[in-house]
Amino acid sequence: MTSATLLSPTTMPPEPTSGTAAPLSRARQRGYIRTILILDTVILVLAVIGGYFARFGGDEPRGSDIPYVIVGPVLVLAWLASLKALRCYDHRVLGYGADEYRRVSAASLRLAGGVAIAGYLADVGVSRGFLGISFAVGTVGLVIARFAARKRLHWSRSRGAGWSRRVLAVGDTAHVLELVHTLRREPYAGYQVVGACIPDALLAPVPQRLGDVPVLGSFRAILDAAAAINADTVAVTASNELTATRLRRLGWQLEGTGIDLVLAPALTDVAGPRIHTQPVAGLPLIHVEAPEFRGARKLIKSFVDRALSFTALTALLPLLAVIALAIKLNSRGPVIFRQIRVGRGGREFGVYKFRTMVVNADALLAELAAKNETDGLMFKIRKDPRVTRVGRVLRKWSLDELPQLANVLFGHMSLVGPRPPLPSEVARYDGDVARRLLVKPGITGLWQISGRSDLSWEDGIRLDLYYVENWSLAADLTILWKTVGAVVRTRGAY
């Protein structure tokens, strides 16, 4: 295999400007890891100092076997070593996904357990209060600091300035295009497809592109293609020509090159906790757990929904009263608008909202049908003339949906879930869309934090189905937290 294969008319290399891209990407990667290490060190030093002053108030502790001027630095170094041992500085887990936070928490908990056991066995007199405060503050601080660093990284990536992986996609045309589309849906993940290699039979006698991704050659040119575009990752998708033997040899060829090998199976929209890998006779079997629609976690979700909705309704009573008065003074008609929606299992229920439109809004719908700005089954217009002056304010800040807390309390809805559909929408469901009805609809959800009304029908359905398949209590809490930011930004609210 030579570079001549790559430079044939079929496999024209990309623009020469990419020559420094990979070194720049790796420099940014190393810089980000250094930043994380510095942040961790500062957080741990502050946590240990804070634990000392919180426990002893600055006084010299009595009865200590080891001076705390030694205990503190040793604890910080041991903590950093524990983080390193659990690969908390591995570029493969930094910047995206929950695995980074899990590793940080696990490293802290393991060290805390190890220190407790070692102190007991060695009978060393170190204050448990000092250790408890230091570990609690340090663990929370590490997670918050990494969250802040990740937000900064995502901001940089959205502007093309952050550390991202340069990916050479390998596989059949359809699977490569699907990989490109999937990775571009999540730009924050940091995977930038900069070239592709496809089977010989699909190559034309002239340079090809898959969308805006250049085709650099066949599977025989993978190493040359990766070198030409300075790729640091080779992502292999499905192809009949990529046998197990060829894939294994590709892994051998990439050894020592600094290029990661990533396998992208034809399996999408499955969250990490549902996937488990089990090697059998050298064959990695991927186990995909079925979605959980019953059981203890659903009971806990239902309890949390009702408890939080009751608390929120009680706390927000004054605000609800003010909104009700504003609606009444602004336009004639009822304060609360009740509309039939479809919930779990196809059961209909009345969803409650503050009225934001004139009372004859439904009668005016036919006149406005031609102005619909969305595709699919929904109807949305940015400047809907049926919306009242107060209604525009309520919609902008999503205050019109607060009465749905009563729906959650009654068990019709959940705090987090798919958007509650109209019966007319459900009647036109086809294919997989009906799976949205396997769980309770929610006041908020992935659609709420991903653009709301700015989303297309297809994107909204994709997000709803992803939630149905992969929901978890941790994901619900994350969505609730992100909903606050989505409401404040008001993007897609009209």
Automatic annotation (TrEMBL):
The keyword Signal is annotated on this UniProt entry: no
Polar residues: bias regions: 1-10
UniProt key word Transmembrane: yes
Membrane topology of this protein: Multi-pass membrane protein
One Pfam family here: Bac_transf
A single MF term (Gene Ontology): phosphotransferase activity, for other substituted phosphate groups
Keywords: Membrane, Transferase, Transmembrane, Transmembrane helix
Domain spans labelled Bacterial sugar transferase: 301-488
Stretch list, region Disordered: 1-23
Compartments where found: Membrane
Family as reported in the entry's similarity comment: Belongs to the bacterial sugar transferase family.
Name under which the protein is recorded: Exopolysaccharide biosynthesis polyprenyl glycosylphosphotransferase
Organism (species): Plantactinospora soyae
Species lineage: Bacteria, Bacillati, Actinomycetota, Actinomycetes, Micromonosporales
